[in-house]
Specification:
The protein is of the alpha/beta class. The chain has helices at residues 13-23, 46-49, 68-77, 94-112, 153-166, 171-174, 198-209, 224-231, 255-264, 274-282, 294-297, 302-305, 319-328, 335-349, 357-361, and strands at 3-8, 28-35, 52-56, 80-83, 119-125, 175-180, 182-183, 211-213, 218-219, 221-222, 242-246, 253-254, 270-272. α1 (13-23) crosses α8 (224-231) and α4 packs parallel to α5 (153-166).
């Protein structure tokens, strides 16, 4: 029997590619995509649009801001829910994010309890993981009673959302969680949301300053198409109980190596200690790419918080992720040979990155 999907966050970067993945599946009959009234439509071809219907609503409003008719339609018709929408903000406190990032999930849990039996797929973040094995590695499972602490409201909100799901008595029947790492770009086109991507802004900031901080971080650069390929598997539309640490675990690149990669492509940057970099950044002014996030980078212990996943990325278990990668023969795009070159070409063509000295000399 063909399935009907309800998807939030479909107008976002990951949502667009997940929709493309889902509409290509013959068993998908229709995808209801939630969007705010003022949001535009993602661009889809004619064959894709035949399976997509937009519904007006807002995840921060009670009942998701749905009309009575649309709410009833979702309850009665939908087989699978993908909840991608969230307010991603690394500065706001938890109290400002709770409606969008926690209460919206409560609304979807309620929808799952009416009408047709549904599978609820929720996108979280690696930073919300807290359950560990005996070797102190983060496991792919629902939150247990392990205490959780974070000074970032966004991470707190994602943990509280996961905790909501862990408290559902029959969660293993209808709930799946995807904990995402750094979603960077499309492995083929290089397309990426550079305007609001903290890592991209950090890289550009360093290029503008001509210096980058010495940070001991291992980065998991994950392509959006790989993430969509995993999330869109049939397994997660027919059964629950799965928690996946979803990131490119086949290859890492250190922060310093990443910046050296850009230096080799003609950007004149020197490595310095974090305090020196911080001082130069804070005096750079509004033209610097990271200016609007200066509250995060100006803190005394900012060097301990920046790219925080990179401090212990090798502690995240990926047994379940690798099982599905092997089962379906899904490729994890190589970072240095494929992902970075595609991303770099896209950022240059979009004029996000300035012209390098190498380009000027050619």
């Amino acid at each position: 029997m063909k399935k009907v999907v309800f998807l939030t966050g479909g107008t976002g970067f990951i949502g667009k590619y997940l929709i493309e993945k889902l509409v290509a599946l013959p068993e998908i009959k229709l995808i209801y995509v939630l969007r705010r009234e003022q949001s535009g439509n993602p661009s889809f071809n004619d064959s894709e649009m035949r399976k997509v219907e937009f519904i007006t609503g807002d995840i921060a409003i009670k009942g998701l801001g749905l009309s009575f008719e649309d709410y009833d339609k979702i309850c009665q018709e939908v087989d699978v829910i993908y909840h991608l929408a969230a307010e991603v903000n690394f500065v706001k406190p938890f109290s400002s994010l709770v409606n969008s990032n926690v209460n919206s999930l409560s609304e979807l849990i309620a929808i799952c309890k009416y009408g047709k039996k549904k599978i609820l797929n929720f996108t979280s973040t690696l930073g919300a993981a807290c359950s560990k094995d005996k070797n102190n590695n983060y496991i792919e499972d629902f939150p247990d009673k392990t205490p959780y602490y974070s000074d970032m409201g966004y991470l707190q909100s994602k943990y509280e959302a996961e905790k909501l799901l862990s408290e559902e008595d029959n969660r293993r029947d209808f709930v799946n969680i995807f904990r995402l790492g750094y979603i960077t770009s499309h492995s083929k086109t290089g397309s990426c949301p550079y305007k609001n991507n903290q890592l991209m802004l950090f890289i550009k900031s360093c290029i503008q300053l001509g210096v980058y901080p010495n940070l001991k971080r291992l980065l998991n650069l994950t392509s959006v198409d790989f993430a969509a390929d995993i999330m869109g598997l049939r397994d997660f539309m027919s059964s629950g109980g799965h928690v996946i640490n979803l990131f490119n675990c086949s290859e890492y690149i250190s922060w310093n190596e990443l910046m050296s990669w850009f230096v080799k492509r003609g950007y004149d940057m020197k490595m310095t200690d974090f305090k020196s970099w911080q001082e130069q950044f804070l005096s750079a002014g509004k033209d610097n790419a990271l200016f609007r996030l200066r509250l995060v980078y100006r803190k005394k212990n900012a060097d301990d918080k920046i790219l925080r996943f990179g401090k212990e990325i090798d502690k995240y278990r990926t047994d379940k992720l690798c099982y599905y990668v092997d089962k379906y023969g899904i490729n994890m795009p190589a970072i240095k040979e494929r992902l970075l070159p595609a991303m770099f070409n896209y950022l240059r063509s979009a004029n996000f990155l300035p012209t390098s000295n190498k380009e000027l000399a050619e």
